[in-house]
Amino acid sequence: MKYARFLADGKEKLGTVEGDIIKEIEGDFFTEYRVTGKEYKENDVKILPPCIPQKIVAVGLIYKDHIEELGFPFPEEPIIFFKPTTGIIGHGEDIIYPPMSKRVDYEAELAIVIKDRIKDIDEKEALKHVIGYTCFNDVTARDLQKKDIQWTRAKAFDTFSPIGPWIVDDINPNNVLVESYLNGERRQSSNTKNFIFSIEKLVSFISKVMTLLPGDVIATGTPYGVGPMDPGDEIEIRIEGIGSLTNRVKKT
Question: What's the pTM?
Answer without folding.
Answer: 0.97
